[in-house]
Automatic annotation (TrEMBL):
It comes from the Bacteria. This is Methyltransferase FkbM domain-containing protein. Keywords: Coiled coil. GO terms for biological process: endoplasmic reticulum to Golgi vesicle-mediated transport; endosomal transport. It comes from Phyllobacterium brassicacearum. InterPro entries: EGF_Rcpt_Signaling_Reg (IPR053202), FkbM_mtfrase (IPR006342), SAM-dependent_MTases_sf (IPR029063). The keyword Coiled coil applies.
Length: 451
């Protein structure tokens, strides 16, 4: 693999995320490597202060080891990497890990490594512990490690002194080698171990010491100069990125609000349409109520008239009922007592002469002959005497009595039945049942049998 660039200053502008521009210096070495591999012990955040972020964006991958609570964010941002939640020390198992709430980047293994713990706010938890040898053997045994970064906040000596550097051979080592928040080197405990395993110390940037394996000692020339403007880089602006993220969130909120606004507008339009429909329905209902009220008033007037008419008809019915009762009562008024026997007598005569004979055809011929003044048809030689008398009586009635009796009877019948007929017709127009009753009453009067 060719790791030497033709010029340390060639290439596009890079963005530096590391706290002391370590990634800029590493970019000088690996500018032309497109598919590299790294190991980051104490990776912390996936972006803020990250030595590997710029290389991950270029397509690299590697192993990130972080025991703190920020691990979930790291794992979510680095799906292409192998992310391990553990502390790298000199043994396998579990260790106490102190998480600093004030400055999470200074969280560290709490026991067995450092002689004392600074007073700070936070809590101590148990975390998984692994060795660097086992980590490389399990996840990178067949990979060329381009660079290995160790930032273990005091555990560097335990890691370096317990690792077999004849097997684990990264091209470049980047190790934090100063006391917290100072430039004082504290690499005396482990610097000799790396030198004894053929690693060459090539650079100190004030916080980290850079080592190059002896196989790649040609890379030493790239560490002669400190990071400068000619390295063609820009700094990652944490505040700008935070504002950019906030801006993206605001844009999402605005899009959501816009969608909700459109939904509300659609609902308002539907509500307005519904209101217009209800208003039209209300107007129609009011018109319908007015029409029904008018009909009710008309029906009320008709009912009032019908009641008046019924009252008048009832009074008439009572009056004519009295007349009928007087006609049917033999002990009624005098005028009716004089007329009633005569009416009954005429009724009897009419019944007697209108009765059917044994030979209705012959009787019919006799009546017709009498009415037309034609000579009667000669009867059979053996005609009974009763038939001869009946024909004589019929002839006598038709010739002598009928011209006087029939007009008198018609006038008398009209006189007595005309009021009843008028009443019947009037009541039939208002009440069919009452009309039927009066009809039956009139028939009863006319068909009154002889007492």
């Amino acid at each position: 693999m060719n790791t030497e660039a033709t010029s340390p200053f060639e290439g596009a502008t890079m963005v530096s995320y590391a706290q002391n521009h370590e990634d800029v210096l590493l970019n000088r070495v690996f500018r032309n490597v497109t598919d590299g591999f790294y190991i980051d012990i104490g990776a912390y955040h996936p972006t803020v202060g990250s030595v590997t972020k710029a290389f991950y964006d270029r397509g690299w991958s590697g192993i990130n080891v972080e025991p703190g609570d920020v691990f979930d964010e790291l794992q979510g941002a680095r799906p292409r990497d192998t992310n391990i939640k553990a502390a790298v020390v000199d043994k396998e198992g579990e260790v106490d890990f102190f998480q600093n709430a004030v400055d999470p980047g200074t969280s560290r293994v709490a026991t067995g490594i450092t002689p004392s713990e600074p007073e700070s706010e936070g809590e101590t938890t148990r975390v998984k512990a692994v060795t660097l040898d086992n980590l490389v053997a399990e996840h990178a045994s067949k990979r060329t490690i381009n660079f290995l970064k160790i930032d273990a906040e005091g555990s560097e000596a335990a890691i370096i002194n317990s690792t077999n550097w004849r097997v684990v051979r990264p091209q470049v080592l980047v190790i934090e080698a100063t006391a917290p928040w100072s430039n004082r080197l504290i690499n005396q405990e482990w610097d000799s171990t790396l030198l004894a395993n053929d690693f060459i110390r090539v650079y100190f940037d004030g916080i980290n010491v850079f080592y190059v394996r002896s196989e790649d000692k040609s890379l030493r020339s790239l560490f002669k100069l400190p990071v400068n403007v000619l390295d063609n880089y820009t700094l990652f602006d944490t505040e700008f990125e935070r504002m950019k993220v906030e801006n993206l969130n605001i844009q999402k909120d605005l899009e959501q609000l816009s969608a909700e606004r459109d939904e509300l507008r659609a609902e308002i339009e539907k509500a307005n349409e519904r209101a217009e429909y209800l208003a039209d329905s209300l107007d129609y209902s009011r018109d319908e109520v007015g029409r029904l009220n008018s009909q009710v008033l008309d029906l009320t007037g008709l009912l009032h008239l019908e009641r008046k008419s019924l009252a008048a008809s009832t009074a008439r019915a009572v009056r004519y009922d009295n007349i009928v009762n007087n006609l049917r009562d033999p002990g009624g008024p005098r005028a009716l007592r004089l007329v009633l026997p005569l009416a009954r007598l005429i009724r009897k005569i009419q019944r007697a002469f209108s009765a059917k004979s044994d030979n209705p055809t012959a009787l019919s011929h006799s009546v017709v002959a009498v009415e037309t003044s034609r000579p009667p048809v000669p009867a059979a030689s053996k005609t009974p005497p009763q038939s001869i008398l009946k024909r004589a009586a019929v002839r006598t009635y038709n010739v002598i009595l009928r011209p006087f009796v029939r007009p008198f009877m018609l006038r008398l019948r009209t006189f007595f039945t005309q009021p009843v007929n008028d009443l019947r017709n009037e009541i039939l127009s208002n009440n069919e049942e009452l009309g039927k009753s009066f009809k039956m009453l009139a028939i009863t009067i006319l068909s009154q049998p002889r007492q």
